[in-house]
Specification:
By secondary structure, the protein is an alpha/beta fold. It is built from 12 helices and 11 strands. A 7-stranded mixed beta sheet has the order 1-7-6-5-4-2-3, sandwiched between helices.
C-alpha cells in the first residue's frame, strides 16, 4: 500500500513537471515568434508539421477543379513537396512564383498567378540556398486579398532575424529549433481560432479537441502521440540563449534587441564577404544578392559555383583548407533544377552566424580565392 501511494505521488509530480516543461516551451516559442503560447505546436521537424498542415488546409478549403495553390521556385522542398503531394490528391493546379536571373522572387509573377481561385500561398521567409530574404509581408497581403491561406517557411530565417507573425499577418509559419541553436524539434505557429475551429485535425480519438492549454493538459489537437519532451526543454534553452544576447524587460523585448545586434554584425560580415569575392573574377558565380549595398536583404548564407569545376571538386578544395561547407541541392530541388545544376553536383554552400568573426570572413574569402586559382 505504501509503495503504491509513493509511486502515485511520484507520478503526479512527474506529470506536473512535464506539463510545466511543455507550457514553458510554448511560452518561449511564443516569445520568439510574437504569438500566444496556445498558438504553438511542437512536432518532429518542420517537414512533418507542414505535411500535417497541408492535409488539413486543403481539406478545409474544399478544393475543386479549377482551384490552385501558389508556391515559390526558391523554396526548400519542405514548403513545396508537402503541398504538392496533397494538392495532386485533390487535382489542384500548382502555380509558381518565378525566380528571376538573380535568384530572387519575381513579385510581378506573384501578382499574375494569385487570383480568387487560389486556396494557398506558401513561400519561404528566406532562401536556404541563396540567403535572400523575401518580402513576406507583401506576399501575405497579396494572398489575403484573394482569400488564400498563407503559410511561411521560416526555418532558414529563424536564426538570423526577428519574426513577428502578428505584424506579418500570416495564417501559419513553421521553423525548426535546430536552426536557432537548439535540438531537432519542429515549431508551428497557427492562428488560434483557425487552428481550433476551421481546420480538421487528423488525430487519435483520446487526443483533445483543443489547443495546447493548461485545461487540455498542455496537449494540442495538432500533436498526435507522445511529444519529445527533452527536445522541448532544449528548445526553451535555445530561445533563452538568444534572449540573453539582448537587453529589455521581458523575454520578447530581449529577443528583439538580440536580433537587432545580431543583424548588425551579420550585415557587416556579409558586406565584407561580398566585397571580397567581387574581386575574384567572372568565373565565380554567387547565387542571390551580390551587391554589398544590399547586404541587409539577405542572410550570410552563400551558394557558389566556379565555371572550371563541378561542385564536388570545388567543395573539396574548400574543405582541404579547413572550411566547413557542403554541396548538393540542399532540398532546394526546384531552384537547383531551374539553374540546371543537379548533374554537376548542385550548389557549394558556406554559411556564417553571429558567433563568426571578421577574421573568419577574410579566411573564407582567401580560401575561395585559392580554390578558384588552384
Amino acid at each position: 500500500m505504501l509503495r503504491s501511494l509513493v509511486g502515485s505521488e511520484m507520478c503526479i509530480r512527474d506529470r506536473n513537471h512535464t506539463l510545466e516543461v511543455v507550457a514553458e516551451g510554448r511560452r518561449a516559442v511564443g516569445d520568439l515568434l510574437g504569438c500566444q503560447p496556445e498558438e504553438v505546436t511542437f512536432g518532429g521537424n518542420a517537414t512533418t508539421l507542414t505535411m500535417v498542415l497541408a492535409r488539413a488546409v486543403l481539406r478545409q478549403s474544399r478544393v475543386k477543379e479549377g482551384d490552385n495553390i501558389v508556391l515559390s521556385q526558391t523554396d526548400h522542398d519542405c514548403n513545396i513537396g508537402s503541398w504538392i503531394t496533397v494538392a495532386e490528391e485533390h487535382g489542384v493546379e500548382i502555380r509558381w512564383i518565378r525566380a528571376n536571373e538573380g535568384c530572387e522572387l519575381d513579385m510581378g509573377s506573384a501578382e499574375q498567378v494569385v487570383d480568387d481561385r487560389t486556396k494557398l500561398l506558401a513561400v519561404g521567409y528566406a532562401s536556404n540556398t541563396t540567403g535572400t530574404v523575401n518580402d513576406v509581408k507583401r506576399l501575405v497581403d497579396l494572398g489575403k486579398q484573394h482569400g488564400a491561406w498563407t503559410h511561411l517557411d521560416a526555418v532558414h530565417y529563424a536564426p538570423h532575424g526577428l519574426i513577428d507573425v502578428k505584424e506579418i499577418g500570416t495564417n501559419s509559419l513553421v521553423c525548426s529549433s535546430y536552426k536557432f541553436f537548439g535540438p531537432h524539434v519542429g515549431c508551428l505557429y497557427g492562428q488560434d481560432q483557425l487552428m481550433l475551429d476551421e481546420l480538421f485535425a487528423y488525430k487519435v480519438r483520446p487526443a483533445p479537441d483543443t489547443l495546447g492549454t493548461p485545461e487540455s493538459w498542455q496537449i494540442s489537437r495538432w500533436e498526435p502521440g507522445t511529444q519529445n519532451y527533452e527536445g522541448i526543454v532544449g528548445t526553451t534553452a535555445a530561445v533563452n540563449y538568444i534572449a540573453r544576447i539582448g537587453e529589455g524587460d521581458g523575454r520578447r523585448e530581449r529577443i528583439a534587441d538580440a536580433w537587432s545586434k545580431i543583424q548588425c554584425h551579420e550585415r557587416a560580415m556579409t558586406e565584407r564577404f561580398l566585397i571580397g569575392i567581387s574581386e575574384l573574377g567572372p568565373d565565380l558565380r554567387l547565387f542571390g544578392i551580390s551587391d554589398p549595398g544590399r547586404a541587409g536583404e539577405r542572410t550570410p548564407t552563400f551558394s557558389m559555383r566556379h565555371a572550371s569545376m563541378d561542385a564536388p571538386e570545388f567543395a573539396a578544395k574548400l574543405v582541404a583548407q579547413g572550411i566547413l561547407c557542403g554541396y548538393g541541392n540542399f532540398y532546394a530541388q526546384e531552384l537547383c533544377g531551374l539553374l540546371e545544376l543537379e548533374e554537376s553536383g548542385g550548389f557549394v554552400r558556406c554559411g556564417l552566424l553571429h558567433y563568426n568573426t571578421m577574421e573568419e570572413v577574410d579566411r573564407l574569402v582567401d580560401a575561395v580565392q585559392h580554390a578558384c586559382q588552384s
